[in-house]
Design a protein that fits this description.
Layout (H helix, E strand, L loop, with lengths): L1 H34 L2 H7 L5 H15 L2 H14 L4 H14 L1 H10 L9 H14 L4 H28 L5 H10 L4 H18 L2 H13 L5 H14 L2 H6 L5 H23 L1 H16 L16 H21 L3 H11 L24 H23 L2 H6 L3 H33 L5 H36 L6 H26 L6 H28 L4 H36 L1
């Protein structure tokens, strides 16, 4: 029967943990939807000032209740070169402070008898928001966050029930007691246990909840709980490091910096462990009238004292370490530089998703912002690919020509893969629960990447025409080369306008895009008339005329795809305004 009871406790604990994790996910997603893409915009404009990074990381993480989301975004920004490594370290430090809010929510509202009683009115309020404001996405998101918080409190109450009966299993309590008898080595042991369990669960908030419940019921002492919390701070770095597996060396360094900061913070805390515990015990005694070291059998024991002390420790631990280590960011960077070497193969011609790269965030708004940034990178690739074309005309040696052709061919493959990967990503986003605005944005983005890929194909076709011309020994005179150079310049202006529009959907310069398209078409018409006249007069033979007309037509075709991109952006903006 005892085995059956133990299994029942484990099942109840697993179910309660599942409710808690789902509640955290629901609340975090709701808060992220409320914040929308603004938090990414804020992170994107972090300066080299450590204080601004720390404050931003704190605010963003406290707002979205997910340090994992913050650190994954940081890794993606560093990976794309939009955030310096020093700025990333500062944001990560702030994220550690912001995550302490979760412990205080649990301590103040999620422990004790009847804590789940808060959930019913909050749940009713959330349901009313869904029905009354069903047409407003922001109100839906607020309702989702409230439901998440309500379920979190229910999950805490469910967690307490199986853990509250642990006194029926003296073997388990004796084992905990035995592990706690090795003095300072016990502290190190529980740090390791906390790190391992958090790595396995990949949810430091859940481990913190279990720790607080066990403290509340007196199954573990204050020192043991503190050790588990320190271990949880190390274990939570696994999320960023997993996200960095597909990142470049800069992204990996950002993830390692998270690990280094938390490990060094634990080492610092262990050095001052005794006086720090005394300080927290004194503060807790003043607040609750009971020391966290008071025995549970003591008549003066207050079950709220240990959870309060743990929350205080969690806050002091992260704030204190940030205040100290903020002055040592350069040294942290040297450590991560030693840990992660930049690979030689990380060159511009290699295919690499800089924003998506396996980093799946929990809301459509965040994922669309990532997709937008990836599309900007796509455009950058296209513009780079276009700059190779003039070299095909000026190449003197076959080796030089072949080298340029090889790069263009490689870029064409890259554009195909980028179009496929971004399309798959957007399709996945669209298959979820998205707003009407997000749906319109997805459709626009799919049209954009389709046309960007077509631009890449057309550039490749122009290159292939140049190759055929070279192989057939077809030579243009200075006038024809000048005409094609002029056409190429007009297309370059159109590409530049397109690229600017892709960086700011809210200020699309469609007039400039149409003007560039008009100039391309007008010049194409002029070249066509001249070409027909030249053929009638026998100025050049059929082979030259065929290659020449093919090239200016392909440039004009490329311009059509370019204007399609700006029109798609403008259409998305208009839907957003509606």
């Amino acid at each position: 029967m005892e085995i059956q009871n133990i299994l029942l406790v484990i099942l109840n604990l697993a179910g309660a943990l599942a409710v808690f994790l789902f509640a955290m996910k629901l609340m975090s997603e709701g808060l992220q939807k409320i914040a929308g893409s603004k938090m990414r915009s804020v992170l994107k404009h972090i300066t080299g000032n450590p204080l601004s990074g720390i404050l931003t990381g704190t605010a963003v993480t406290a707002a979205i209740q997910s340090s994992s989301a913050t650190t994954v975004m940081v890794v993606s920004f560093v990976n794309a070169g939009l955030l310096s490594l020093s700025g990333a370290v500062a944001v990560i430090m702030g994220a550690n402070i912001g995550t302490t809010v979760t412990a205080w929510i649990i301590t103040l509202f999620g422990l004790g008898e009847g804590a789940g009683g808060f959930s019913l009115p909050m749940l009713l309020a959330a349901v009313s928001l869904f029905f009354i404001f069903s047409k407003r996405d922001r109100m839906k998101s607020i309702g989702q966050a409230i439901i998440g918080l309500a379920l979190l409190l229910v999950g805490m109450e469910l967690l307490q029930k199986p853990l509250a009966n642990l006194d029926q299993y003296p073997g388990f309590l004796n084992a905990l007691g035995n592990l706690s008898t090795f003095g300072f080595w016990s502290i190190l042991l529980f740090v390791a246990i906390g790190a391992i369990l958090t790595c396995l669960v990949q949810a430091s908030a859940a481990m913190m909840a279990i720790t607080l419940v066990m403290c509340y019921n007196g199954w573990i002492g204050f020192d043991v709980a503190v050790a588990l919390v320190m271990g949880q701070n190390i274990g939570t770095t696994i999320t960023a490091n997993l996200a960095a597996l597909v990142a470049n060396s800069a992204g990996k360094k950002a993830a390692r910096a998270h690990l280094v900061f938390n490990v060094v913070g634990v080492v610092i805390t262990l050095i001052v462990f005794s006086p720090l515990m005394t300080l927290i015990a004194d503060i807790t005694t003043d607040l609750t009238g009971c020391s966290p070291y008071t025995d549970i059998k003591d008549q003066a024991y207050n079950p709220e004292s240990v959870p309060m002390a743990i929350s205080l420790f969690h806050t002091i631990f992260n704030v204190g370490n940030t205040l100290i280590l903020a002055f040592f960011i350069p040294q942290i960077l040297k450590i991560v530089d030693w840990m992660v070497k930049t690979k030689d193969e990380e060159k511009e011609d290699e295919f690499r998703l800089t924003y998506l790269g396996g980093n799946w965030l929990s809301t459509a708004e965040l994922n669309l912002q990532s997709a937008k940034s990836e599309i900007e990178e796509f455009s950058k690739r296209i513009l780079r690919m276009y700059t190779f074309l003039p070299g095909l005309r000026t190449a003197k040696k076959d080796e030089e020509f072949d080298s340029i052709m090889e790069r263009i061919s490689k870029y064409e493959e890259i554009t195909d893969r980028m179009e496929m990967e971004i399309s798959k990503f957007l399709t996945k986003v669209g298959s979820g629960d998205v707003s009407e605005h997000a749906s319109e944005r997805i459709s626009a983005m799919l049209r954009i990447i389709d046309n960007l890929e077509s631009i890449g194909d057309t550039i490749y076709q122009i290159a292939m025409t140049r190759q055929s011309k070279r192989e057939d020994a077809v030579h243009f005179d200075a006038g024809l080369n000048a005409n094609l150079s002029e056409m190429s310049g007009l297309v370059q202006k159109a590409l530049d306008v397109m690229d600017r529009n892709l960086h700011d959907y809210d200020h699309v310069d469609l007039d400039a895009a149409y003007a560039a398209e008009h100039d391309i078409n007008a010049y194409r018409d002029r070249l066509r008339v001249q070409h027909l006249d030249a053929l009638k007069l026998g100025v050049y033979d059929y082979a030259i005329g065929n290659a020449y007309s093919s090239l200016y037509a392909q440039y004009e075709k490329l311009g059509d795809y370019v204007i399609n991109v700006s029109e798609a952006i403008d259409g998305s903006r208009k839907h957003a305004d509606d």
